[in-house]
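Case study.
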Amino acid sequence: MALIEFSDFSFRYLGSESLALRRVNLKVEEGEYLVVTGPSGCGKTTLCRAINGLVPHFHHGYVAGSVIVNGLDTREHTVAEMSSIAGLVFQNPANQLVTLNVEKEIAFGPENLGIEPSEIRRRVNDLVGLLDLGSLRDKHPHEMSGGEQQRVAIAAVLALKPKILIADEPTSNLDPASSEMILTLIAKLNREGMTVVLIEHRLDIVSKQASRLVLMNDGEIVMDGPPRIVLTDARCEELGIGVPKATQIYQRLKKRNIELPRVPLSGEELALLVQEASHR
Amino acid sequence: MIQLEDVSFSYDGVYSALVGVSLQIDDGESVAIMGNNGAGKTTLVKHFNGLLRPDHGRVIVNGVDARRRSVAELSKEIGLVWQNPDHQLFLDTVRKEIVFGLRNLGYSAEEADARCDMVLKDLHLEELAERSPFALSGGERKRVCLASVLATEPKVLALDEPTIGQDAGQKLRLARLLQDMNRKGCTVVVVTHDIEFVIENFPRTVAMSRGRIVADGKTSSVLSDSNAIALCSLSPPQMTVAAQSMNRLFPEVSPRMTALSEVEEAIVRILGGR
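After joint prediction, the assembly is written out as follows.
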């Protein structure tokens, strides 16, 4: 069985007239790096909330179909139970931080799950090392920069040892340098086996790392495949998806009868493909 | 016109958020302010309408020293749209939110309603008029904030990170709207990390780092300048990365391109003649 499995899952928020998700079918295997994109209001955030049970346990509404995560039906298991399987990182880290220092923040989740103090200590130390938080040990979260706060928020989520990291536009409030650091970190976690579901509009900065790109519109999944295939599909343009410029150039050259050997996702790749084509 | 003369500012008296900043933005300009977190971009913009007052130096708005004018007076000329919409919204429907600002500036109830309708239409928010701003998505809330400022028809529109949480289609509509405002004579100043948005829409870029302006000029020159990019911890535009990578392989290609069409033509010159 897949790690995450949506079967004909539909959801409508209480008080809303339209469905946020319409008969979604999606299977995600362990170790995948899924990027979910689509116009605002297309259901991306709802999809993520449905993986860790915030939908329907915190955000109530009409539910049909099922979401099975790590063998557990999210309708029958609480958010607390799901939190050690699927951890969610939000756009604004300040909304997620609850304590006064880094170590307490990381320990907060495991303490609430009743994990042994010695084990908690070990996790805190590991994460402080992994995420380079040592210099922040004595800083109040509100004195930290956005990038620092986001690193602490990710550490707090990882402290529950989830199998899945779900991140809802985790870098949109950060400057480019901090964004790159967070995305490099997420890619590293994925290489070490973590399953990642990342929501992002800016495909130029995430496509290279993703193993799969899911395009949503109006509550439905309209495309699902490797980034190079999805991004060269005409539907991206129809839906106003931000296709990386290097990929756009590939398409434009094709129309002018110049074919590059592969689809580039970045400026460096584009240059190398031009070199390859010039030697042929 | 906004002039800053040798402006310095510190929040806590220790750390300098702005250090001797001089800047002139003429009427009808369209300017992007870029830089890393903590570079002083938002602090700079807050000086435009008197929310912050310089420790040293002067701010002159439309020929008058800003010191002599209140935030309320300056706000009639300079509309500021915040980075975080939750710091700006507080009423229970989108319509009330927009009408509130207009009534405060002295517009009659009918006039406020009419302006509200117009701006809701411009920003594709008509369907959300009676919804609570707090039930909207992050991207929608940002557009409500923009609507409430646009409705007052400011002479200068300053936006702090307007593209956060906006998809490609919304960014395009935002860009068109800002161009439209600009054509009607409104000065547009945007603080952003979104380098591609700047390249496509803003002829002038001011790059900041550690409270100082480190580059100010034509966007294509500022953003293809490796030194300025590094000083401000910006990621170079994807097309500049392509140009620099191609320049290493094909020395005849200029490493300082920012536009997609320039890079496309450079590739056609290399591959087209085979």
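Observations recorded in class. Chain A has two domains: 1-85+165-177+191-227, 87-161. The first helix of chain A runs from residue 44 to 51. We will return to this complex in the next lecture.
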